[in-house]
Amino acid sequence: MDKKLHIIGGGMAGSEAAWQAAEMGVPVVLHEMRPAVGTFAHRTGHFAEMVCSNSFRSDDDERNAVGLLHWEMGAAGGLIMETARAHRLPAGGALAVDRDPFAEAVTARLLAHPLISAEYGEIAELPVEGNWIIATGPLTSGALAQSIRAETGAESLAFFDAIAPIVYAESVDMSVAWMQSRYDKGETEEEQTAYMNCPMDREQYYAFIDALLAADKTEFHEGETAGYFDGCLPIEVMAERGRETLRFGPMKPVGLTNPHTGVKPYAVVQLRRDNKLGTLYNIVGFQTKMKYGAQTDVFKMIPGLHEASFARLGGIHRNTFINSPTLLDAQMRLKSRPNIRFAGQVTGVEGYVESAAMGLLAGRMAAAELLGREVSPPPPDTAMGALITHITGGAEAKTFQPMNVNFGLFPPIDAKGGRKGRKDRYKAYTDRAKESFQAWLAAM
Prior knowledge:
Blueprint: E1 5-8, H1 12-23, E2 28-32, E3 55-58, H2 65-75, H3 79-86, E4 88-89, E5 94-97, H4 99-112, E6 116-120, E7 131-134, H5 142-152, E8 157-163, E9 166-168, E10 178-179, H6 189-192, E11 195-200, H7 202-214, H8 235-240, E12 267-273, E13 280-283, H9 292-299, E14 310-312, E15 315-321, H10 324-327, E16 333-334, E17 337-342, H11 352-370, H12 383-394, H13 422-443
Parallel strand pairs: 1-2, 1-7, 2-6, 7-17
Antiparallel strand pairs: 3-5, 4-5, 8-15, 9-13, 9-14, 10-11, 11-12, 12-13, 16-17
C-alpha cells in the first residue's frame, strides 16, 4: 500500500493539509499546476497566494466565530495562521497580511520540510489509486472539474466571486481622506489608524449610486447564472437591491469622525493596507463586475480618489464547489471513492480561513488513516467542528450554498438572549468551543 499522501492544489487548504500530514510523519506530494498552467487571478507560482482580499478577517477569538477559528488553527499548529501572524499588517481588529511575503514564507516552509515534495503540472482526472486530497479551490481546472462531475453524476454548483480593486496609496488625496479604524479599534495607534476613509455627503453618495447602476458590466456567457455568495456581493448588485444598501454595508459611516470638517459623513468608502510598505490599499467590500474603463470612471468619483492610480482593478470569476452534504462522509472522503478526500473552498466553505481549516482537518484525517488509526472530527460546538458538520451533512443538500463560519452553525447555548446579551452569548460560545477543542486535541 502506498503510504504517501498526494494533494492536488497548493492554495490555503492544500498547503495546510500538506503541513499537517507531514508533521504527523506521513510523506506528502503536493501537486500544483501553477506556474506551468496559470489562472487569470493568480500572479505567481507560490503556494497559498492570496488572490482577492489580503485579510483573514476578525482576529477576535472571544466574540467572533472567525477569530475563534484563528485560535483553533493556532492551537492545532496551523502553518497558515502562524505565517499570517508573522506577516500581519495593521488592520484594526482584523488580521491582514503582506500578501507576497506571506505566500513566499508558506512556500519556503513547505519546500524545506523533509517529508514534503512538490510536483508541478495539471492533473486532469480524478486519480484511481493512492491516497489523495483534492484542494483545488474555486479555480479548479476545467478538465479536473469535468472529471469530478463525471464521477459524482451531478452538475457543478457555481457562484461568481468578485475581486476588489487595489489603489496606490500615494495617489489618494489625504486632504480629503483620513486614517482611522471604526470606533478606533485596536490597542496601538497604528491599529487605530489602519484604514483610509473617503467621506461622501448625501449628494455625492447618490451621484455615485447612479453612476454605479449605469456603468457597463461584465456579461455572463450563455448558460451561466449569477448565483452570488451573499458574503462577497459585487457592489453594483448590492446597489440594485436598494439605493441605501451600500450605506448599511461596506459604506456605512458609523464609528468614524472626519477630522477635516468635523461633519459626520453620509457614507464612507474605506481602504485597507494591502502590503507592509503601505504603498497599496484595497477598497474594502468593493468587489465588482464593472468593466475596467467603467471602474476607473466610477471609482474616481469617490472623494479623495479623483486622481487615484490603480495597481489592480476588480474582476469576477466563476467559483465551483461540490454538493458536499450528499457526496462526502464525515471524514471528508468521497463516498464513491473513499481513497479521495476533498478540502477547502471546493467543499462549499467560503473564505481563506475556512478553507485552510478544512485543509487542516483533511490533512490530519488522511495522515491518521495512513498510519492505521482514525481522527474523529472536532465536536460540533467548535468552529472547525461546526464547519465540517455543515458540509458533511448538517446543511440542506437541496439548497446548499458556500458558507463562512458563524455562530449560527454552532449548537445553541444557554446564555442571555436579546441584543444586549449578544456579546455575553458569543463569549459563551467561544469559551465552550476552546474547552472542547483542547479536549479534542488532547485525545488525538
